[in-house]
Design a protein that fits this description.
aminopeptidase activity, 358 residues, 9 helices, metal ion binding, metal-binding, hydrolase, alpha+beta
Length: 358
């Protein structure tokens, strides 16, 4: 296992007075072991204990040929994996449980009375994962660099008469050509007025001359996600109304980024973007939080919202993506990923945020 990461989780457990925990999230298991295992309906559980007595309970359907640095406990489809897991647990101590563990396993474990009590242990590892180590930062930078290249190639291929859905297929090829392993989320290609729906389901609508297009895309590189949004115009300069809206969103993005440094609250970052849009008269049309954490998962734990008063720390990576959405008219969103540093932040995307007409 990746001992430095495991030790950080153990330190977090000790601060919470927790001596044992099971981790069942495939993303968190990958974070600690370097191995992706997608168990489907079967159970997988990484048991960690403050005494170092770590074990992994895993179905034989998922062979692991490399040494993960943890004792493997294998079970067959004809066996009950909870019986194997129960043997690992100290019944005299409280057990941390993963927040997303299926009830079919959780209820069975609770009914087995194998621990003194049960708590949600996920916040411990979630908070460790929020702060990227040096290896993760380099991968995230590389992932975003690929996303920049893909965005520019996408721009070069946008044509009147082609459908939103066509470009989802093209994006798959572009990511593969740049060394990514597919999407980090389903791309949003939203030609106007579809862009007024922040999570528009990409469909068969055709690009028309004079349209605006919201392009929200991301890929995976070495299992780490990228995410970026740009809004472009096709064929002709935007109207004054649309250009003004675009520049308000751009200013909100830049204002929020300008205040980011260690010690600033997530809520302050959200307010910086939101207040600028509100003061411009479009507050009711900015309908979502300003950003989300990102890493192994495109939506890691933590968000940039007005109710999150936690202070940001160096090593955190999250999105800054304000938007304005006018029904039956236009949607504009501009999104960058930022890496928090002691004295500021580093923007991981380099694609221009000026008005672009293709």
């Amino acid at each position: 296992m990746k001992n430095s990461r495991v030790n950080k989780v153990l330190e977090g457990m000790m601060r919470e007075g927790l001596s044992q925990m099971i981790i069942t999230s495939p993303a968190s298991i990958f974070y600690l072991t370097g191995k992706w295992i997608h168990p489907g309906e079967r159970m997988i559980a990484l048991y960690i204990n403050k005494n170092g007595n770590h074990k992994m309970v895993i179905n034989r359907l998922f062979p692991v040929y490399e040494d993960l640095g943890v004792e493997m406990i294998w079970y067959e489809d004809t066996e009950n994996p909870i019986d194997h897991l129960n043997k690992c647990i100290d019944k005299n101590e409280i057990l941390g449980i993963d927040k997303d563990w299926p009830a079919k396993f959780l209820i069975q474990l609770i009914n087995s009375n194998v621990a003194k009590g049960f708590v949600n242990g996920s916040p411990i590892i979630d908070r460790v994962r929020m702060i990227k180590d040096a290896e993760e930062i380099e991968i995230m930078k590389a992932s975003s660099k690929i996303n920049d290249a893909v965005m520019l190639k996408l721009w070069n291929n946008l044509e009147v008469g082609k459908s939103e859905k066509y470009y989802v297929g093209l994006l798959q090829e572009l990511y593969e050509s740049e060394g990514a392993s597919g999407f980090s989320f389903s791309p949003i290609i939203a030609t106007s007025p579809n862009g007024a729906d922040p999570h528009h389901g990409t469909g068969k609508d055709l690009i028309k001359d004079g349209d605006s297009i919201v392009l929200d895309i991301g890929g995976k590189y070495n299992s780490y996600c990228s995410d970026m949004t740009r809004t472009v115009f096709i064929g002709k300069e935007p109207s004054k109304e649309h250009a003004d809206i675009y520049n308000i969103v751009k200013s909100a993005n830049e204002k929020a980024i300008s205040i980011i440094k260690e010690g600033v609250k997530f809520s302050d970052i959200d307010n910086a973007a939101r207040n600028l849009i509100k003061d411009a008269g479009y507050g009711e049309y900015f309908t979502h939080r300003t950003g989300h954490s990102i890493g192994i998962e495109v939506h890691d734990f933590g968000d940039v919202s007005g109710v999150n008063h936690e202070e940001v720390k160096a090593g955190m990576i999250f999105s800054v993506e304000p938007g304005i959405y006018l029904k039956d008219n236009i949607g504009v969103r501009i999104e960058d990923l930022v890496l928090v540093t002691k004295d500021g932040c580093e923007i991981l995307n380099s694609v221009t945020k000026e008005i672009v007409v293709l």
